């Protein structure tokens, strides 16, 4: 059992587990959507005094913030106690493409050259992370949800607007990957 | 105490996202380059099972933990915000390899840079709140 958990999970098992998380939240009377936490955090920080969008009953969203805290704990547990040292089985084509961009595949989940503490000394890396985050935050609120709210919860409920949002996710992702990233890396 | 169950659900989510490698910047690049089935398999499995589960919940009028019927809210039927917001989101998703959930999961995994991504996401959310009324929806 523990050996199975320590392996990287196959895609079908991962998909099952994500649906399980969605169903657990539905059973608790809530809905699965992560990005609303960003709005809640802005409200807790006092943004509601200046901007009406953040002036809402954020206490009703505390459960989701607890879910967020749990997700940080989950990442910590999985990485420190449930991982095998084997490198991510990334496709050779991706490794080659990223190499061309100057990003060496280090076998980990995320490149140390972008996300390690050391990498933050580079002002360009810092700008990439900050602007990338800004686009995600702005876009998810504009679209009214992120991958969990639209691609999982929304599509599961056959919502056409969610399908449109997911198509948007891919338009943006393809523009960034093929048009913009070659220019900035 | 009533919050513990949400922390545990979040923990399961964090473990799932890490073990599935859906939190991986590399895997997101691989997905947008169409060089592996992995991410499509994860999302595809989740959506197919999700559709079945939601239709069963509706059909059998399943109840939640407090005995209330589980309800689903329809998304607003205006499409400009979904396509524009979605595209902006996608730009950031490909660049940082992280949507909002994985940002926090990766922070727990020890990637310090994710704190900057989270800061950016909060700024982006705040910016949206400020200019919301001037945007087409």
TrEMBL record, chain A:
It is found in: Cell inner membrane. Signal peptide: none annotated. The keyword Cell inner membrane applies. GO terms for cellular component: plasma membrane. It is a multi-pass membrane protein. The chain crosses the membrane at residues 12-29, 62-82, 125-143, 163-184. InterPro entries: Sulf_transp_TsuA/YedE. Keywords: Cell inner membrane, Cell membrane, Membrane, Transmembrane, Transmembrane helix, Transport. It comes from the Bacteria. Belongs to the TsuA/YedE (TC 9.B.102) family. PANTHER family: INNER MEMBRANE PROTEIN YEDE (PTHR30574), SULPHUR TRANSPORT DOMAIN-CONTAINING PROTEIN (PTHR30574:SF1). This is YeeE/YedE family protein. It comes from Pedobacter zeae.
Automatic annotation (TrEMBL), chain B:
The chain crosses the membrane at residues 38-57, 78-98, 110-131. Keywords: Membrane, Transmembrane, Transmembrane helix. It holds the Pfam family Sulf_transp. It comes from the Bacteria. This is Transporter. InterPro entries: Sulf_transp_TsuA/YedE (IPR007272).
């Amino acid at each position: 059992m523990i050996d199975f958990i320590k392996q990287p999970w196959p895609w079908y098992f991962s998909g099952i587990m994500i649906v399980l998380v969605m169903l657990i939240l539905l059973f608790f009377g809530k809905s699965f959507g992560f990005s609303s936490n960003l709005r809640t955090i802005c409200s807790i920080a006092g943004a509601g005094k200046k901007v009406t969008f953040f002036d809402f009953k954020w206490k009703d969203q505390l459960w989701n913030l607890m879910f967020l805290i749990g997700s940080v704990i989950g990442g910590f547990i999985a990485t420190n106690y449930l991982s095998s040292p084997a490198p991510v089985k990334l496709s050779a084509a991706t490794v080659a493409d990223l190499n061309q961009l100057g990003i060496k595949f280090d076998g980990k989940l995320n490149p140390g050259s972008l996300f390690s503490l050391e990498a933050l000394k580079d002002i360009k890396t810092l700008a990439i992370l900050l602007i990338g985050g800004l686009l995600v935050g702005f876009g998810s609120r504009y679209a009214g949800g992120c991958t969990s709210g639209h691609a999982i919860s929304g599509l599961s409920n056959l919502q056409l607007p969610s399908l449109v949002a997911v198509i948007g996710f891919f338009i943006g992702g393809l523009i960034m990957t093929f048009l913009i990233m070659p220019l900035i890396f | 105490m009533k919050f513990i169950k949400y922390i545990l659900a979040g923990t399961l989510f964090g473990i799932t996202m890490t073990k599935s490698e859906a939190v991986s910047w590399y895997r997101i690049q691989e997905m947008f380059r169409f060089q592996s089935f992995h991410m499509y398999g994860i999302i595809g499995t989740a959506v197919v099972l999700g559709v079945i589960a939601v239709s069963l919940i509706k059909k059998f009028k399943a109840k939640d933990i407090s005995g209330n019927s589980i309800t689903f809210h329809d998304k607003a039927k205006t499409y400009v915000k979904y396509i524009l917001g979605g595209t902006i989101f996608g730009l950031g998703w490909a660049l940082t390899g992280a949507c909002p959930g994985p940002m926090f999961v990766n922070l727990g995994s020890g990637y310090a840079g994710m704190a900057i991504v989270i800061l950016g996401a909060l700024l982006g959310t705040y910016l949206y709140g400020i200019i919301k009324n001037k945007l087409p929806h």
